[in-house]
Amino acid sequence: MVNGEFVLRGGEVVDATGRRRADVKVRNGVVVEVGEDLDGRRVLDADGCVVAPGLVDLHTHLREPGREEAETVETGARAAALGGYTAVVAMPNTEPAIDTAGVVRQVLEAGARSCCDVRVAGAITVDRAGTQLAPMAEMAELGVRMFTDDGRGVQDARLMRRALEYASALGVVLAQHCEDEALASGGHMHEGEWSSRLGIPGIPSEAEELMVMRDIALARLTGARVHFQHLSTAGSVAMVGAAKAQGLPVTAEATPHHFTLTAAEVASYDPVFKVNPPLRTAADVAAVREGLASGVFDAIATDHAPHAQEDKEAPFDQAPPGMLGLETALSLALTELDLPIEQVLALCSWQPARVAGLTGQHGGPIAEGAPANLCVIDTAATWVVEPERLASRSRNTPYAGRKLTGKVRHTLLRGEPVVVDGEAQR
Is 303 annotated in the active site? Predict the structure, then answer.
């Protein structure tokens, strides 16, 4: 069932304008009617489900080019579609880094053949080395709207100021992985009670918070937008909340693992729980949850970070950081956060679409004439995470065996049902 005419029947439409019982008719990639008891040549059953704008992930590692044994654009996009995502922003820490127009084109071309709208974040600096600005204007001409050295923070404050001024002139946003490398050096988990117990060198909260503080100051100085990636500490949440209260142009994202898991998980010494920034304390988890509820955070981002099995089976201090996220993020938010469905969808769909510059293409509202980038969610469905059944090439999920509530039933990309009844169609 590809483009043509069909109806999503029996669901409750939830978007930025509110919620209402309605069917949605789609024709040739566009929503043509929203109302009750609509007829269509074909029907996708949405009875008892929520019909929502497709989800948007600001933080996806697709590993291509360079690490295709862990993930490809194709397999990552399939995982995204199964998770309800119609758009993802691919991070630039590939090999080679996405720091030139040529590599941007390579990833975009692969994305054009996939079942999700794959957008690209370009690197702020050449090879993400933090010493020389990358040719952002050339990448911006290809539609790149976000730049980050993700995996590393830009250490040089003067260079970051220049990058912000340049980004402001280009009309793009800089996203920062906040980590002071001098403080974090040699650490493999959160510095605190558990790192002391386990004998694993730690990364203090201050390694993140110092850079958050610095970049809030640079946003104030330059007037440029800063997006803070995967914030994990109570101090970071408080500083971003204060910056927003002052009207500074900052946005922020939180990941599911930072609102569901703590450093205590590392007691198993299983590298599946190694991530950067690291899992923090219960108090930090509570602060991240409160930040999601109060509006400090603009988005839930997956930080989907696949790794080949042999890499994740290395000793904890040698294993790479990262966890899968695309197929579990929405379900974790619905299961773990005490938030109404409208707020969860705002954090997963239309608010990240706004941060990424995708408003009008993704994130709704669901109305006549809008692109048919949609997902249908059975909010009552329960399922158990089984790593071997995930679409990713990798298996490094920390949620194996966990029972979750809420499952994507259908996903439509530009009017094409790329997921039907929980099964990828291509």
Answer: yes
